[in-house]
Amino acid sequence: MNKKRTGFALALGLAAVLTAGIFLLRSQDSSPDSVPEEAVSECPEACTVIMVGREASTDGSIFTTHTADCGTCDWTFRVVPPADHEPGATRKIYHINQFKTWPPSEGLKWDVYVNDFTGLEIPQVEHTFGYIHAMFGYMNDQQLAIGESTLGNVRKLNNPTPTAKFDITMLTLLAMERCRTAREAITLMGSLAEEHGYGHTDRGEMLAVADAEEVWVFEIMPVGPLWTPESGKPGAVWAAQRVPDDEVAVCPNESRIGEIDLSRPDFFMASSNFMDCAVENKLYDPASGKPFSWKRAYSPSEGSVAKSGRRARMWRFHSLVAPSKTFAPDLPNMDYPFSVKPDKKLSVSDVMALTRDKCQGTPYDPARGIRGGPFANPNLYRDTRLISVANAEYTTVTQTRGWLPAPVGGIVWIALGAQDTSCYIPFYAGVTDIPQSFKIGDHWEFDRNSARWAFDYTDFHAQPVYSYAVQDIREAQEKHEQSVVARIPEIDREILTRFERSPLEAAGYMTGFCLSNAENVVNAWWTLGDDLLVKYNHHGYYDAARRGRDRTKPRPVELWRKAVEMIDIFTEKPPAR
């Protein structure tokens, strides 16, 4: 037999197998889930919320996270100061589309949104708390903290009409202004949505609502486009469940509340119509003999990671925090427990690491095989939804600590841009300002005065040689992020010393520290982006630390190189006869 023909046939066979394998993998990972036709399927890519109870953390902190993953949304942050209000004052309610932005020439989002007044004004309270917000309210000076994840809902419940006066952003801002505790916030948001209607640009939403003692999952849905205040019925349907203090929970854009037991008010809250709404809309039949399940009625989300990479985050979170429970990949996501006790307690650094996870070393690793290209880039293959995503606007980790005064105990850690190439920067709950660079910026206009662009600049220069560049970034994270994590107890003590003399003095000190640290990190990331550009220019390796001024080349993944060689053989034209 001709050796050349045999070799060519072997290469042809290998290439065919490789091509078929890639096709099957993509088909498996990208196939739509078998969800009921009436279920809303469109959800953001990865607004993952992680929740950690105070007895599940290493130091008694409570943690929540939020990944704003839109890819085109506003990324700016603001601090709203506390305020006193005159008797008889009112609070205007605005429609605030969480996804909408305007060109900078027309004005920044948090200036322009006031043009979308709903026509509703509600009585103002005597005093409103100060708080930090971006797309949503994240923490106020009472240590109330929030994280968000979009759920979607059964389509017939959508209410895009202006009759619904509240959307999820506006609800979070009102909670920040008026509430000290998670339970107060849930009650306020639920009652306002019931009275004045919920929806407009939002559908089913989940909020992790935490204070210094506990953390709750709050889920809210609209009730359909025909609702009016004159109907006498609630304009929203909502439920809330508390995460046990010694457990952790996750929401990966999927409803998490199942059966509701209102006889246990320390663990469940709900609107009066939480079941009636489902019965009226034929989403639940009491005669079925089955117990009522909130998530199966209002936001069914079928599938598992074994069936579709779209469902990877639920399995991955549990495999990381509770590996001893060995949840199987084919376990439907809707069958996972509401919360679990972690195998080990989690620190703030552990939570940050969870937000950066990309299923590394698992069958669902997006850099596995040739998926990640020549330099194992996990951001190229998009058919697996990950906790860490390349299109994040920012990620927040909120930390509440009940043993400290509220302005000192609360911290919002902010990572601008993609988690894997960014750096968490702390802002105490009692700060009176954030850097000007955090208040500006837009996806469509490069701006060296915008902090977010510093992190995108570094991220952009990391992508071509990811496996090498990410090592440089991790060194920077260790220097500028983890060193600050280690210093927080020292900073706390200094703030407390000043707080005992004067809360105003303490606020000045903590604000100065946060502003200075943020400026240092942003400058460091601009420099890091420059360094990566030089070091890996033209896919070379220009290492100034090496002796001599030689240039080497980063070595690509061996399997990727062999695959290219096989495909070259497969596509090579046969010699002319």
Q: Which strand order spans the largest sheet, edge to edge or round the barrel?
A: 14-1-2-16-17-18
Percent range of helical residues:
25-40%
Please mark out the parts with pLDDT under 50 across 5 or more consecutive residues, or reply none. 1-38
Structural class: alpha+beta
Give the biggest beta sheet.
Answer: 6 strands, antiparallel
Terminal CA distance reads 19 Å
The quaternary structure here is single chain
Using DSSP, what is the number of strands? 18
How many structural domains can be distinguished in the coordinates?
2
The geometry reads as: globular
Q: Report Rg.
A: 25 Å
As a percent range, the share of strand residues is 15-25%
Mean pLDDT: 91
Helical region count? 13
What does this structure look like?
By secondary structure, the protein is α+β, with helices and mostly antiparallel strands. The chain has 2 domains: 3-28 and 540-571, no CATH class; 31-530, no CATH class. It has helices spanning 3-30, 109-112, 168-178, 182-196, 276-280, 294-298, 312-321, 348-355, 406-409, 451-462, 466-501, 503-535, 558-571; strands at residues 48-52, 62-68, 78-80, 83-84, 90-94, 117-123, 127-128, 131-133, 137-140, 145-150, 205-210, 215-221, 237-243, 248-252, 268-270, 394-400, 411-416, 425-428. The chain has a 6-stranded antiparallel beta sheet. A 5-stranded antiparallel beta sheet has the order 10-11-12-13-15, covered by helices on one side. Strands 3-8-9 form a 3-stranded antiparallel beta sheet, covered by helices on one side. Strand 11 and strand 12 form a beta hairpin. Helix 1 (3-30) crosses helix 13 (558-571). The protein is globular. It starts with a helix and ends in a 6-residue tail after the last helix. Residues 1-38 have low confidence and may be disordered.
